[in-house]
Design goal:
single chain; alpha/beta; five-stranded parallel beta sheet; 17 strands; about 40% helix; binds S-adenosylmethionine; S-adenosyl-L-methionine; transferase; cobalamin biosynthesis
């Protein structure tokens, strides 16, 4: 970080602005909003500033800048159109240890003025250390549209209620929970939408305060969250909220660190991943830990790769919680099949090639034995095998035994949706060999069906800056079907 971000209290404090044109006027407008006592040093003022001076809102020193004009100033702003004068102001301010900003000149400035979104008392400031002012303006515009206009009304009401809430909900965790429910709840949204005024909301808050102070012991809960296949951009808004509200995050091996990092900074993070062949934490231990944490009154975010109800054992965890009477919620995620197929340019259904879609686990002998292979062998469908990499050879053999032709198209997607994604396409005849040659590793998804042929024409994603056909040329795809 090149600059230390602060908000400076300037009410009734003397501030000197050198320059009397439009640029100075914009800064003065901001300064006046803080209640600063502004003195403008300039031989002449533009009309709007002259009116402010006439109304007594600012003091005008009709003179060329002299160093002593800075005496006593808390901060100074140089906003003339002459570089030499601005540099002189900056030099003199530095000599006096007065923080100085020279408009549009970061070399001469001690501080920079960020782009702001003003929903006072909430103020959002955006700066790029002077590197990309247009980008910061864009960000500001986005925030302008994103932040409700009446956010300030909500913040003011919260400020008014704070002492009462503090007195009546003594336990800090319960208090935080009260505020989170308040800001996420219907009272706040009514106020933000203008459906309710502050006085009505205040009365309704009184009611929830009574409830909060009566239930002294915080109630824990578990939110079972699907984190998607890897790309953090595929996280849902609800998943993000669950992550940010959590006191503890329990996460699996397939959840990327970028996603875990979205949790609150003070949230405890517990890794409970199970790598193939590795006995890290058993399912029973994870279930017991979820119960224990919720009983301690914690809000637990249980993060799972993809969707928690698709080969994620989410159902088992919830059965335990339900049996123990623990409150829970489920946030669905983008399952690996949907994410990987989309990022590989493979539509899972297509009117010409596949009218049905099946997700199967290729995990272990016991489970694959329960699979109806005759059903999977039928034409006109797409079959997605999760956890099938280790059993690729036997999956292909079983399909072939059931009469699936050797030329049936298939693909393997490794690290789908992530920067390291690779796609190997081929047929049942050569896929095992190609996957071996490319040294495909877990996690990888096997898709069997004619839709995989569309990859050549529809692939679009690769995070390494290469074109998709360049990746194909690395011999991961079936050369016979290469367009390049
Ligand atoms: C235990 S299952 C979890 C599935 C998850 N609940 C879901 O809905 O995607 C793990 C398997 O999902 C597949 N998988 C998950 N993420 C993947 C990714 N980013 N790329 C490829 N396959 C993935 C692999 O087959 C992996 O072995």
């Amino acid at each position: 970080m090149d600059y230390f971000p602060i908000f400076l209290k300037l009410a009734d404090e003397p501030v000197v602005v050198v320059g009397g044109g439009e640029v100075a006027a914009r800064k003065i407008d901001l300064l006046l909003r803080t209640g600063a006592k502004v003195t403008v040093v300039a031989p002449e003022l533009i009309e709007s500033l002259a009116s402010l001076a006439a109304a007594g809102s600012i003091v005008h020193l009709a003179a060329e800048f002299q160093p002593e004009h800075l005496n006593g100033a808390r901060i100074a702003i140089a906003a003339t159109d002459k570089h030499s004068i601005n540099a002189w102001v900056a030099h003199q301010a530095e000599r006096r240890n007065i923080p100085v900003n020279v408009v549009d000149d970061r070399e001469l400035s001690r501080f920079i003025v960020p782009a702001i979104v003003d929903r006072s008392p909430v103020v959002v400031a955006v700066a790029s250390s002077g590197d990309a002012p247009v980008l910061t303006r864009r960000l500001r515009e986005k925030l302008e549209t994103f932040l409700p206009q009446r956010l300030g009304v909500l913040a003011k009401l919260a400020g008014k209620l704070r002492p009462a809430v503090k007195a009546r909900v003594e336990e800090p965790a319960a208090r935080r929970r009260f505020w989170e429910r308040f800001f996420d709840g219907p009272l706040a949204s009514d106020l933000l939408a203008g459906r309710s005024d502050a006085a009505t909301v205040e009365a309704r808050v009184e009611e929830s305060l009574r409830a909060a102070s009566e239930s002294a012991k915080p109630v824990g809960e578990v939110v079972l969250v699907g984190a998607g296949p890897g790309d953090p951009g595929l996280l849902t808004l609800r998943a993000l909220r669950a992550l940010q509200n959590a006191d503890v995050v329990l996460y699996d091996r397939l959840v990327s660190t970028q996603i875990v990092d979205l949790a609150r900074r003070d949230a405890e993070r517990i890794y409970v991943g199970k790598a193939p062949g590795d006995a890290h934490a058993s399912q029973e231990q994870i279930n017991a830990l979820l119960v224990k944490l919720a009983r301690q009154g914690k809000r637990v975010c249980r993060l799972k790769g993809g969707d928690p109800f698709i080969f994620g054992r989410g159902g088992e965890e919830l059965e335990t919680l339900a049996a123990e009477g623990i409150r829970f919620e489920v946030v669905p995620g983008i399952t690996a099949a949907a994410g990987c197929a989309a990022y590989a340019g493979i539509p899972l259904t297509h009117r010409d090639y596949a009218q049905s879609l099946t997700f199967v686990t290729g995990h272990c002998k016991g489970e694959t034995d329960k699979v109806d292979w005759d059903l999977l062998a039928r034409p006109g469908q797409t079959v997605v095998f999760y956890m099938g990499l280790g059993h690729l050879e036997s999956i292909v053999a079983r399909l072939r035994e059931r009469g699936v032709p050797a030329e049936r198209a298939a693909a393997i997607i490794e690290h789908g949706t992530q920067a390291t994604q690779r796609v190997v396409t081929g047929t049942l005849a050569d896929l095992v060999h190609k996957a071996g040659e490319a040294r495909i590793e877990s996690p990888a998804l096997l898709i069997v069906g004619e839709v995989t042929r569309l990859h050549d024409a529809l692939h679009w994603f690769n995070a390494n800056g290469q074109r998709g056909d360049e990746i194909s040329a690395l011999a991961f795809t079936n050369e016979g079907r290469l367009s390049a």
